[in-house]
Amino acid sequence: MTRRRSIPCLAAAVLLAVMAAPAVAQTPTSPQELSVQIEGVGTLSAPLQIVVLMTLLTFVPAALVMMTSFTRIAIVFHFMRQALGLQEVPSNQMVIGLTLFLTAFVMAPTISRINELAIQPVVAGEIDVITAIERGTPPLRDFMLRQTRETDLALFAGMAQIDQPTTPEDLPMRVVIPAFAISELKTGFQMGFFLFVPFLLVDLVVSTVLLSVGMMQLPPMMISLPFKVLLFVMIDGWNLLVGSLVRSFLP
User: Fold this and answer.
1) 80 in the Ramachandran plot: left (φ > 0), alpha (ψ -120 to 50) or beta?
2) Which of 34, 116, 121, 176 has a CA that sits 20 to 30 A from residue 149's CA?
3) Do residues 196 and 79 touch, judged by C-beta distance below 8 A?
4) Does the residue 49 lie in any domain?
5) What pLDDT was estimated at residue 186?
């Protein structure tokens, strides 16, 4: 009789043990055990650096266009396509792609200098982000100042009510960047004008010949287009154009 009573007691004990096991497994872990140590670059924490990085990514397109050689190259390529009379050849994707690669080629020395002075030290934890920005700014400023006209610098320095600096390197970036932008626009339009003139002469000659023979109903553009393409190919236009663009940024 005692043995029969012990069996239900043993079964009840096993059932209680099974029911108690999930409760033990689901016991919440203390916050100290759940914390994960994430180290950021420099003195900023990793979450804050991610927020700053995501914010700066929205500024990258404007910086690429206005603080590098992208603007001048893109304007000259646009003038070249208009001068040839080719609306879709080369396509916009090809023009932008070539412009980006030429921009990377022109900016390579400046980027290498910034990487050496600022990026590598901050990744290694030797300096903080603020110091890295201070170290990386002079190489970019030097590049922009080499391409910026003094009249444009004086214009924005006067509007910003900045005292006359000892050297252009003393100007803040809020003056250098817009001055560099309008200088690049002017230089790009100047190069585009000189690129446009030879092809305009071809159009004038073809139009005059057609009028002299009485073919007024024939569009001059239809006749001049093959001659302009032939002229551009015979003089190795891409080599001359790209070479002139890249050399225009050399110190």
Assistant:
1) alpha
2) 116
3) yes
4) yes
5) 92
Residue 76: partners with Cβ closer than 8 Å, 6 or more residues away? 188, 191, 192, 195, 241, 245
Query: 3-state SS of the chain: helix, strand, coil percent to 5?
Result: 75, 0, 25
Selection from 64, 58, 38 nearest residue 49 by Cα: 38
Cβ atoms 69, 188 nearer than 8 A? no
User: How far apart are the C-alpha atoms of 236 and 191, rounded to whole Å?
Assistant: 17
Q: Give me the residues of the chain with pLDDT under 50, please.
A: 1-42
**Do the domain assignments include residue 28?**
no
Q: Give the count of beta carbons closer than 10 Å to the beta carbon of residue 231.
A: 15
Number of domains in the chain: 1
62 alpha-carbon distance from chain centroid: 7
Give me the pLDDT at residue 138, please.
Answer: 85
Q: What is the DSSP string of 4-38?
A: HHHHHHHHHHHHHHHHHHHHHHTPPPPHHHH----
Asked if residue 244 lies in contact with residue 80, where contact means CB atoms within 8 angstroms, the answer is no
Output the pLDDT for position 44.
57
Q: Is residue 174 part of a domain?
A: yes
Given a contact cutoff of 8 angstroms between Cβ atoms, the answer to whether 69 and 102 are in contact is yes
Query: Tens digit of pLDDT for each residue in 61-96?
Result: 777 788 888 999 999 999 988 888 877 778 888 889
Q: How many CB atoms lie within 10 A of CB 226?
A: 10
Is residue 131, in this structure, part of any structural domain at all?
yes
Strands (E), 47-177: none
Q: Which residue range(s) make up the domain with 157? A: 43-194
Q: Residue 74's pLDDT is what?
A: 92
